[in-house]
Amino acid sequence: MAEQVRAIRTRQAILSAAAKVFEEHGYQAATISQILTEAGVTKGALYFHFQSKDDLAQGVLGEQDQRILVPERATKVQEIVDMVMLHAYRLQTDPMVRAGVRLTMDQLAQGLDRSGPFVRWAEVVTVTLRKAQEQGELLPHVVPEETADVIVGTFAGIQSMSQAVCDYRDLAARTSALVRHLLPSIAVSSVLASLDLAEPRGAAVYAEALKAADALELAAAG
Amino acid sequence: MAEQVRAIRTRQAILSAAAKVFEEHGYQAATISQILTEAGVTKGALYFHFQSKDDLAQGVLGEQDQRILVPERATKVQEIVDMVMLHAYRLQTDPMVRAGVRLTMDQLAQGLDRSGPFVRWAEVVTVTLRKAQEQGELLPHVVPEETADVIVGTFAGIQSMSQAVCDYRDLAARTSALVRHLLPSIAVSSVLASLDLAEPRGAAVYAEALKAADALELAAAG
């Protein structure tokens, strides 16, 4: 058990180091020896967890989907809003999430398959939109797969513009503007009227999700 | 006159070379001597036109706003749709536009101010939205500056996702989905009903714009 904990910690340290090196140098220019130096682990330890630079990048890319989950909501459209707003909040506050997103958006990273995060996010949103559809929350013309792609793609751009213009300082405001612009063509009006699309929502969902995760961990331990 | 033409050609050759080198290596790793080799010009010629690597990058970034303009439309919302769709079409077909966009989206290009294209695009869209507002095309709650930022930011993400997922093959379809999702919260219904938001629009606008540019050039020469 102690060994397993140590292995998880080592893996995490390597991923953090990789995130930092990719962020500083770009995927193309980054080298495994830079990541080794940054992580302070042996070559053997690194290759035990990751086969290659590509494998390390996929590890960093994967970190943005995991860990903190949005609590279930009765209104599934609100659940999607909460996913987007929570992700925006984590982008502002969590270096690993930021590194994953930058790598996803690194159009210069040749040979690296960056489609994973887009595709995985789109799948999660599609599933939630289907539930929303079953509950009668969506306008009749909505095609869940198409709308999910629009939501994921547009958020990717909003965060990129916010980073370029002011290093994410206005990301919550831009995210709120995004959902206010998209949802009138997605949800029926009674659902629209019930949604919370305000800027502070991301921080509130984050606090709520952390609490839920802590409770879960406590229950598992006890 | 001949000298002026030569200078313009040299500048263009240097910019094309810079675009290619930035696209291959990323802004961070690219060097002026790589650009010199690629362009096949002397150091003196390069420094006559551009002071630094940053200056070269700004030149490449600037190319995406210039050159081909959307013909004026009676309906200003259609004019905005045409700008977006033309840009999508040029992204698929013009290497210089693609290089400019990749540089704009290069979140790893430290020290390079990438806000220019976002800000300039947002200004053009804001001005056109204001005209649309004066003509009664917009819903009453629309704030042109905010909506312009949403349009520019969301398109940036749609193109990025399309590139990551299938190297732009589905960009026209994604762009059409984007405007169909955004416009119902922007334009009044009578305007919505009059719009052409179909996939082939970008190619058609491009052909039209090229024809108009040729006619203008002919008139200037004659």
Automatic annotation (TrEMBL), chains A, B:
Keywords: DNA-binding, Transcription, Transcription regulation. SUPFAM superfamilies: Homeodomain-like (SSF46689), Tetracyclin repressor-like, C-terminal domain (SSF48498). One of its GO terms (molecular function) is DNA-binding transcription factor activity. The keyword Transcription applies. PROSITE patterns: HTH_TETR_1, HTH_TETR_2. Pfam families: TetR_N (PF00440). Residues 31-50 bind DNA. Residues 8-68 form the HTH tetR-type domain. NCBIfam families: ScbR_bind_reg. This is Gamma-butyrolactone-binding protein. It comes from Streptomyces roseus.
